[in-house]
Fold this sequence. Notes:
Shape of chain B: globular
Number of strands of chain A: 11
Number of strands of chain B: 11
Oligomer: heterodimer
Radius of gyration of chain B: 13 Å
Shape of chain A: globular
Radius of gyration of chain A: 13 Å
Amino acid sequence: DAMVIQNPRYQVTQFGKPVTLSCSQTLNHNVMYWYQQKSSQAPKLLFHYYDKDFNNEADTPDNFQSRRPNTSFCFLDIRSPGLGDAAMYLCATSTRLWGYGYTFGSGTRLTVV
Amino acid sequence: TQLLEQSPQFLSIQEGENLTVYCNSSSVFSSLQWYRQEPGEGPVLLVTVVTGGEVKKLKRLTFQFGDARKDSSLHITAAQTGDTGLYLCAGGVNRDDKIIFGKGTRLHILP
């Protein structure tokens, strides 16, 4: 089945140690998004790619970077994770920007120790 | 700032009961989406509504978009334990606007 796959499902990292989360999709969607979701909060958009065009949200910390080497893959790099970065990280795709309905991956739960 | 307010924040009811949860805004939205998110999983799209007054049904779930396109409701008939989860609404004011999410209603169906 076509889908969005995030790896790993759970990631434990040390304070300040760089970590990379990955997302792959078999839907051939043009747009990929990264969201951060903390407990009892709405998903917060970090950035998105429309094809290779990258768009960073104004309030996304510099600590967060992203790469999209091809249509299928997108990575979230956290250069120096702090305790406040512990969250669920969600990858989503859509056929067009802000399309009518996203397909989400299962998420990566990040713990910072 | 456009906001989507969801109510109630939490709802715990017995299996078999009916319930309604709400998504409200002071802005007019071009479309609204409803997602269900189970613990430890990503949100799954349930429905998109685009026309004021539109009603869509998905088995025991009924979604309505307000006539003025400022609000939406989700009604569940005869709730089941499998309905447990976080229900998120999301939408964009204009067709090409960024989608924003509400904080969700956390629903717990008791056996």
